[in-house]
Amino acid sequence: MSGAIGFIGLGVMGEPMCRNLAQKSGRPVIGFDRADAPLERLAAVGVTRATSLAALAQACDVIFMALPSGAHVEAVTLGEHGLIPHVRPGTILVDLGTSPVELTRAIAARFAEQGATYADAPIARTRQAAEEGTLSIMVGADDAIYGQIHPLLATFASDITLCGPVGAGQIVKILNNMVLVETVVALSEAIATARRAGVDGKLLFETLMKGSADSFALRNHGMKA
Questions:
Q1: If you write DSSP's letter for every residue of 23-59 in order, what string do you get?
Q2: Residue 124 shares a structural domain with residue 186
Q3: Are 9 and 83 a contacting pair, CB within 8 Å?
Q4: What count of Cα atoms within 13 Å lies in the side-chain half-sphere of residue 63?
Q5: Structural domain that includes position 24
Q6: One domain for residues 122 and 16
Q7: Does pTM top 0.85 for this prediction?
Q8: For residue 65, which phi and psi values (nearest 5 degrees)?
Q9: Which of 24, 173, 210, 224 is catalytic?
Q10: Same structural domain for residues 119 and 206?
Q11: DSSP string, 71-103
Q12: Tens digits of per-residue pLDDT, 26-57?
C-alpha cells in the first residue's frame, strides 16, 4: 500500500496519533473532524482536510477512526452520511477506539459485503503516550491485514499485539479496562483505610510504588489522589 491514509476524529488522542502518522509514515494523510482547530494545527505537518466523509473514503486506501464511542463509530461508518456507500473495494478501516464487540463484528460484516476490510485496534495509555508514539494497541484482524496495518500503527505505538480475529482487540481492551477500574477501586479502599488508621495516604502510595503493588494505575491515577 502506498496511497493516502485517512484519519477521522482529531480529539485528545486522535490529533497526536494523526501527527505521528503524518510525520513517520511517508504517505499523504487526509484528516476529518468537525472542529477546525486540530486540522489547522495538523496542516503544519502536511495533513490535508477532507471536505466530507465521502471525499475521504474515495481518496484513501486505509482509514483510521479515533472516536469517543461505539455510537459515533456506527454513525460514521453506517450512518446516513457515513463511509459505507463510498468506500472502495480493498480499503482497510481501523477503529482505534473502544467499541462493543458485537457492533465491531457487525460493522466488519457490512464492509466485507463492499469488498473492504474492517479491523479493531483499540488503544491504551495516555495522551502523552500518543504524543510520544508509545501507545499500546490491541488488534483484532486476520494475519494479512495485521501485516499491512502494523507499520502504520507503529508510527504512534510501541506495543502492538495481535489478539485474534475481528473483535478480539475489543475483548482484550475491555478486559484491560475492567482490571484498571478494579485496581483503582482497590487503591481507593487502600488510601481510605490508611487515613482512617492514621497513615498518610501519599506516604502509602509512594511506598506501594517501591514494592509488588506498583502498577500503571497507581502511578497514573493513585498518585493524583
A1: HHS-S-EEEE-S-HHHHHHHGGGTPEEPSSHHHHHHH
A2: no
A3: no
A4: 31
A5: 4-164
A6: yes
A7: yes
A8: -130, 130
A9: 173
A10: no
A11: HHHHHHHHSTTSSTTTPPTT-EEEE-S---HHH
A12: 999 999 999 999 999 999 999 999 999 999 99
